[in-house]
Amino acid sequence: MAEVEISPRAYVKMQLHAAKLPWRAVNGLLLAQRVGPDPSQPCLLLTDAMPLFHTSLALTPMLEVALNQVDLWSAANNQVIAGYYQANDQLTDRSPNLVATKIGDRVAEHMRGAVLIMLDNGKLSGEYGGPAVVVYERQDNRWTPKDKNLVMWRDWAGTRQALREMMASRAYRLLVDFDDHLDDIRRDWANGAINQRLGELTPTPDIDTDS
Question: Where are the domains of the chain?
């Protein structure tokens, strides 16, 4: 089983999406670069999170539009869709539902080693000491929790501090998901402004991407 490394940008943007609409379920896609000296067991390096929806998470024509656009954007930036994340609308519910597993399966069809990340809503304040996510991997045609020893962090202390500062400044109000973009196509679903701010806050170099 390969390791997964979660960048500050990917982690913080997932949390901001959930914080923007804490009374609703939200979801999004995760992008990755492949790294590692052993091509047969590379580390899956999650570089970014692309927020999708907050109104209806189910498979819809709008999901197909979003998948196509994110696929084109990621290819242009030397990345690939490598995972899916979701926060459920119930505070204590962090289990993948049918929507999560179906979209996760879609991603896994095209990306070996893809992950499904469920956000732990009870730990999203930024004050909790550990990561507020549960990482799943697909084995034997089902999603199972990934060994925590195989989930790596690019400077967890720095990631946590960046999250706290972004929460304190209410940066989640600026985050744009595809629902927002479809309401007003001038709004940037790639969230370049938030990416730039995160690059300034992250104490160690984050992933090299153009936006």
Answer: 4-201
pLDDT digits (tens, 9 = 90+) for 32-71: 985 544 555 578 999 999 999 998 777 688 899 999 999 9
Do residues 136 and 113 touch, judged by C-beta distance below 8 A? no
Quick one: CA dihedral 96, 18, 10, 159, positive or negative? negative
CA distance 12 to 167: 9
Top CATH class, 4-201: alpha beta
Contact 117, 11 (CB under 8 A): no
Q: How far apart are CA 202 and CA 197, in angstroms?
A: 9
**pTM of the complete model:** 0.90
